[in-house]
Amino acid sequence: MNLPNKLTILRIALVPVVVAVYLCVPADAGIVNAATGLGLRNLLVLIIFALASITDYLDGMLARKNNWITSFGKFADPIADKMLVNTVLILLVWAHAANVVAVLIMIARDLIVDGLRMSAAQSGEVVSAGFFGKLKTVLQMIAILLLLLNNWPFALIGVPLASIVLWAATIVSVYSGWIYFQKLKKYVLETM
């Protein structure tokens, strides 16, 4: 097993760690920033999430640079990304830190796109992430970081940047989902 695949597996293994920390550490334990209410729980999850996000960047970069692209990597990498991002978004909704509608739209989009990709794969078509799919992931990661930081430092000046970026990620998510649908609808509609 090559290094990019090991990094993907590490990212998947970090998902239950994130859940355990988020659910077991009290939200108000060890307040780090009294102005924003940033506590130890969010700080720990932020560190784990940031490390996992770095593995996402590294595994892709190493796989392309060294021609270590594998079928396992093509399959597992997007799953690892969605497991990590969607899990943290669900935890943030549970804690009333993220908008439930935005998160539900993004998760629904992921399910639809995954279904489209599976239909295309059955016909021998492998579809990699496009620009807007990658942009969606980057915006989601930035939104998560800001939400975990309780919108610090922007909360100090009254700018809800975390919410703005979350909704931007939602809009890009819907748009990229539409692009996937337009590209892959023939595989779904051919069996109707």
From TrEMBL:
Q: What is its EC number?
A: 2.7.8.5
- Species of origin reads Dubosiella muris
Question: What name does this protein carry?
Answer: CDP-diacylglycerol--glycerol-3-phosphate 3-phosphatidyltransferase
Per UniProt, the keywords (alphabetical) are:
Transferase
